[in-house]
Structure formats: C-alpha cells, structure tokens
Amino acid sequence: MFWLAFIALLIGTGADVMIPVLVSHFIDHALVPRKLDMSILWWYGGIFLALQLISPLLHYYQLLSFQKIALWVVRQLRMDVFGKVQHLGLSFFDRTPTGSLVSRITNDTEAIKDLYIHVLSSFMQNFILVIGVFVAMFSLDMKLAPYALILLPVFYILMQTYRRLSAKVYHVIRSKLSQMNAKLNESIQGMNIIQALRQEERLRKEFGQLNQEHYQAALKNLKIFGLLLRPATYVISLISIVFLLNYFGLQSIAGVTIKVGVLYGMLNLLDRIIEPVNQMMMRLSQMQQAIVSAERVFTLLDQTEYAPKQEGSQNPAIQQGRIEFDQVSFSYDGKNDVLKNISFVAEPGQTVALVGHTGSGKSSIINLLMRFYPVHRGTIKIDGVPLSAYSEEELRSNIGLVLQDPFLFVGDVKGNIRLHNRSISDEKVREAARFVQADHFIEKLPQGYEEPVGERGATFSSGQRQLLSFARTIAIDPKVLVLDEATAHVDTETEEAIQAALDKMRKGRTTIAIAHRLSTIQDADLILVLHQGEIVERGTHQELLALKGLYHKMYQLQAQGTLLQTS
C-alpha cells in the first residue's frame, strides 16, 4: 500500500508541476500572433485537461492510502504499548504514575498518528512537489534555475531554527499534559477522601498551576510558530519575486529576448514552491509534537524492567505445595533491605501466619512468593524446586491470592469469579460462591450471577467485593493459598463463615496468611512475628504468648481494644 501510494504521489506531483511548464511552452511556441492552429490548441487543451484530472485523482488515492497506513500503525502501536505494559514488573509501576501511563498510551500514540499522517502524506507530498518544481525550473531556464537553489539552504536554516526552539517547548507541553492526567486520575480515584477532608480547593489550585504552566508553554510555542513560519516565508517569497522580475527586466534592458512563457512559468513555479514550503513549515508544529510524543512512547516500549520470568527449560509442576524460604533478603530500591535473612518452611496442609507492625515486611514476603519481584539474595522453593524454575501458568494456577483491597473488573458477577478461564464452568462458579458463602447475597441480586459490575465494583459493599474475590480464588482450586488480611472488610458473622470455609479448604493445601487481627490466626500451625524486616519470634499461638515478647504485647493491646469496644 505504501509503495502504490508513493508512486501515485510521484505521478500526481509530476502532473502538478507539468501544468505551468505546458502553459509556458504553449505561450512561447504555439501562441503565434495572428496565426492560431486549432489542432495544436486542442492538443494542448487535451493534455492540460488530462493533467488537471489525473492530479486530484492520484492525490486522493495517495492521501487515503497514507491515512490508512497511519491509522494501522497507531492501532498496532497502541496494542504493542498496552501489551508491553502488561508484562512490566511491579517495580516499574511503583515509581510511575498511572495517569502518566494512560497519557502515553492514549494521547501520545494519537500524536504519533499525526506524525505518520503529516510525514507520510503532507510533508512528503510537499517535499516531492518542491523537488518537482526545481526540476521544472531547470527545464525552463538553465541559467536562472541555479539561483533558485539558494532558497533551499534558506528554508533549511529556517526549519532547523524552528525545530530547535520548539523541541524544548514541546517537551514541557507533553510533560505538563502528562502531569495533569496523573493529577486528574489521582483526584478521581480519591474523590471520597478529597470531599471528606475538604481538599477541593487545594487540588483545584494544584491542577490550575499545572494547567497554567501548560498554557504558558503552548503560548510560547505559538509565538515561535507565528514568527518563523508564514511571516518569514512570505518575506522570502517577496524577495524571490523581486529578484526574478529584476532579472528579466535587466535582461530586457540589455537587449536579450525575453520569453513571456518562461517568465510566466518561473513566476508560477516560484509561487508553487512557496506554498509547499509554508505547508511543511506549518506541519513542523505537529511533527515536532509528534516526535516528542514518539520519544515518550518508545521510551516505554524500550523498558526492560519485566516481571520475573521462568528460568531454565524444565517445566516442573507444583504437587504438594511445600514452601521454603532460605536466607531471603530483598530491597525495593536496591539500597535499603525491607527483608533480612528470612527463613521458614510451610509444610503441605500447614497454615503459616505473618504478623507484625506496618512496614515489618509481611506484604513483601507475599510479593516475593507470588514472584512479583525478583529475589535479590537467598532462595525460595516450592516442593524443593526454585521458584524461578516454574512457568507463569503453573504458579498462577496453583497459588491463589486474596488481597486486602479486592479488585473487581467491569463485567458481571460470574465473569469476575471466572475471569475468562474457560476451564471453570458455571457450576464451578456457583460451587466457589457457595464455598465462601457468597451465594447468599449473589442470589438476592436482581440478575443474580449475571448482575453487572461497574468500575472497581463500586456498586458492591467492601465485604461483598471481598467475598467475590475469595470465590475467584477458590474457583481455580489452588494448592497454595496466600491471604493478605482476607477478612479485613467483612463483618464478624461473615468472617466466621469464611473461617469455617477456610478450615475445609486448608486440608491438603498450604496457606500463607497475613493477619492484623491476631484472633483470626490462633489456630495457625506456625506464626512468624516480623519486625523491621526480620523474624524476631516464631511458634504457635500458645508458644508465643508464653514467650511474653512482641507477639504477647500485640495480643494484649488488641484484647484491651476489644474490651473497650465491647464496653
């Protein structure tokens, strides 16, 4: 499609520049005073009409083709960028604002479309037209045409000056737009907190400041655009016309015969060369913006910070679910360890609970077990096999994760439990819901399992979202359960029902559970007490109470808090 469009562009442009050459030749050779040959007139008229018809038809074809190419490229590019983002590691998302990523995938790829449209179509068309005009000038007057070549370095310097000045401004424009998207995304997600704490005015001012900086940068670019583009090329055009008329005038004074057709042709071609240059200069604005956007998009595409992948060619299977941490240390920033020499073993069917104050490293242990982050030092094994040796599919189908903050996708209840896993039938979906006792509220919904779920499940209560998340995990029948305070958002009655379901589910399965409420993990086979990234105590509930250490203090504080609430 590209080469056919390019050939059409060449022929269409050739037809454009041939028109003034044809008229010039007609004036000088066929238009004889008091002697008009009608056959020659018809011949010239036929060619003129053919050129006038060929040119717009071919330009329409090439323009449509280049537009199709541009749309195809952007469509593919968006898929590439979105696919890339899906496979990046969580460490990348830890330091990259969500709004900035959204801006790159939507706004910046849309700007790249302008790059393809203007470069492949308008810019290329005008550039070829300029070349064609110069070729036509040489065919008309070999002595005068070389003087016209002086215009090329002049236009080049003008373009380079604009490009250099506008590049910095466009970087600021795209950066501020990205920051506004990030601020907007943050504000919408935290709207309940903003309104509850009366932060509307502060956020309005912060957004207004970013908006003002974007406005100032855009205004600065507009001034550069207004000064260097059409006014500058208009002055160059006037100087060129004055030079051309003076050249023919001096030739006439010197007694040299002046061909009226050549004069007409040169003036016409000179006018034709100024307009495409104007168009190219005007397109530099969108082109510069698109190049900046392309830099941002391809910087994202060039990211190599992937999520940890399988190492080796073996494909071991998780059979029992025995988990072993051996001297594991980990740091998010590469400087400060959040985990220090963590070692423990969770035998099949055992429940290992992780307790500790905020920031003690509980979630980091889960993140490493789920292979969201690479292990820096030490080893993690499942069934005696290093975690890195398992395939992504094997890990995700055998380790069930329930987070403290459940995430629901737009769709329906059944789809959120199944998550497009074709191996999970409708009956299995219902069984999973019954297992966690979520069927009670699901069946009361107007459409039951077909009930629509909005963004993040906003129409459901926190407890209902948690139950659906739990049912989603049960549906895959995992050998290992990972619970990050899974009962934090459910009431006491529901929590008791879930605990009963967990007791049945733990048989033959390994469970790693983070718990803030110590009452929920009193029956755990092993409790690990973490403090500042280290395991400071380990044992059963009764053993830890007997130690009268950190766990004992935490238990007493929670017991006192419960008594105060009861009283």
TrEMBL record:
Domain ABC transporter: 323-557
Ranges annotated as spanning the membrane: 40-61, 115-138, 144-162, 227-247
Keyword Transmembrane appears in the UniProt entry: yes
Superkingdom field: Bacteria
The entry's keywords: ATP-binding, Membrane, Nucleotide-binding, Transmembrane, Transmembrane helix, Transport
Record-linked SMART domains: AAA (SM00382)
A Pfam family assignment: ABC_membrane
Membrane topology label: Multi-pass membrane protein
Subcellular location: Cell membrane
Domain ABC transmembrane type-1: from-to ranges: 3-289
GO cellular component, one term: plasma membrane
GO molecular function, one term: ATP hydrolysis activity
Protein name: Multidrug ABC transporter ATP-binding protein
